[in-house]
């Protein structure tokens, strides 16, 4: 797994952990965990597979699972998306992940001082 893939997996698991209140460590541990942890992990694996097109095997490696477990998670979340409220929540979560991914590369440039906004009084129209 590449460094970028690892970073994306961490970003996904961090975000899902944050919005579900489940510890990130539980999402990526080898333990099955309680149902709420398993559901959060399934959501994270679904996003990694569907939003980023990572293979089932790659997603399994990210989350310490077998590719057949990832396939089950993807199908399970697809079925759950038949519920309108859950589907809206998933759409919002997918959009949040995409937005963070767009911001992430820019953050490195901004933090290095390459990008410097002009003071308002020097901006010409």
> Gap between N and C termini, in Å?
48 Å
Tally of alpha and pi helices: 6
Low-confidence segments: none
Rounded mean pLDDT is 86
Written as H for each helix and E for each strand, in order along the chain, the element string is: HHHHHH
- Architecture (CATH level 2) name: Orthogonal Bundle
User: What global shape is seen?
Assistant: globular
Strand content: under 5%
Would you write up a description of this structure?
With 125 residues, this protein is mainly alpha-helical. It contains six helices and no strands. Helix 1 crosses helix 3 and helix 3 (35-52) crosses helix 5. The radius of gyration is 17 Å and the shape is globular. It starts with a helix and ends in a 14-residue tail after the last helix. It has one domain (3-122): Orthogonal Bundle (Chromosomal Replication Initiator Protein Dnaa, Chain: A), CATH 1.10.1750.
Secondary-structure map with pairings?
Layout: H1 3-20, H2 24-28, H3 35-52, H4 56-63, H5 67-80, H6 84-111
Helix pairs in contact: 1-3, 1-6, 3-4, 3-5, 4-5
């Amino acid at each position: 797994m590449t460094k970028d893939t690892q970073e994306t997996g961490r970003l996904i698991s961090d975000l899902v952990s944050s919005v579900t209140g489940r510890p990130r460590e539980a999402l990526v541990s080898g333990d099955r965990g309680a149902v709420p942890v398993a559901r959060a992990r399934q959501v994270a694996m679904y996003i990694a597979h569907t939003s980023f097109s990572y293979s089932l095997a790659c997603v399994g490696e990210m989350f310490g699972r077998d590719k057949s477990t990832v396939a089950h998670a993807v199908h399970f979340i697809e079925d759950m998306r038949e519920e309108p409220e859950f589907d809206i929540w998933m759409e919002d979560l997918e959009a949040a992940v995409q937005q963070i991914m767009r911001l992430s590369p820019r953050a490195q440039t901004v933090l290095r001082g390459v990008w410097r906004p002009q003071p308002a009084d020097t901006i010409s129209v």
